Please model this.
Amino acid sequence: MEIAIGLIIIAIGAFCQSSCYVPINKIKDWSWESYWIVQAVFAWLLLPLLGALLAVPDGHSLCELFVADNAFNITMTLLFGVLWGVGGLTFGLSMRYLGVALGQSIALGTCAGLGTIMGPVLLNMFFPEQNALEALTYSVVTGVVVTLVGIAIIGMAGSMKAASLSDEEKKAAVKDFNFTKGLAIALLAGFMSGCFNVGLTFGADINFGHLTPDMFKTLPATMIVTVGGFLTNAVYCFSQNARNNTWGDYRKSSVWANNAFFCLVAGALWYSQFFGLSLGKGFLVESPTLMTLSFCILMALNVVFSNVWGIILKEWKGCSPKTIAVLLVGIAVLIISSFLPQMI
Model:
């Protein structure tokens, strides 16, 4: 029963993340770089800080975790957060060229597979005595492979979509649709985004041990990773403000209340995925396989829900029944990948 609860919590977080781009459509009279960095303040700084504070027991301070004994792990967690930030930037571009459904599917699928595998592999390189590779069991690898199969099927549906629609129909669904360019960017985004889970792996012990409830243990590491990602995005967004002369966006007082509100909503929905991941893992501690695969499961469910939004937003409008059938098969495979490892 606890495993089911954990998976449901992770699924709720995935649904929230897949919905986080909807509020952005309500933002008015701001350039991309301006609203992106404002929502990043909420998603990657303020909300992760509040989440990390939940991991601090009474009588202690969050600052106690930032000590010399944790210096290496904190540095590595922050570093992979910076690398993940690159994935966050290219992630947005992948949806610009492929749409919400296909862009998230390919990027998150790559992220799911590589993020799950890279964490134990890199941790084993630095700390071989921890035997991190033991986490990559047959069940875990099978789960990753099934997830990637599901992503490949959805990618096939995307290719069929690109081949069947006219240029006018493509532009009607996704204004800047470009399958070749979008695919390359989505794969890069997925590879770099996988660094998030690597950061969480290095930061797994950055908490107060048995004093921190299992469901909150990864929240300090989550905060460190997102801070790293914020730094990357801040450098890029502010450089774009300078290049495009869009500093004036921040002085438009008439839209600040509206835009800040929807940036907050978008940020909260985005952060919900990793808050839900932490809470969900608290119910999966009896299943080492699902603990290792939890990040992969989260990304797979993100893909499922992003395609639901893609259908709602009519990004697959005009496609043949065969293309839609392939898409639905891919979604079904991803759903199966969430619980299949537990059955092996």
The mean pLDDT is 84. The longest helix spans residues 71-126. The radius of gyration is 20 Å.
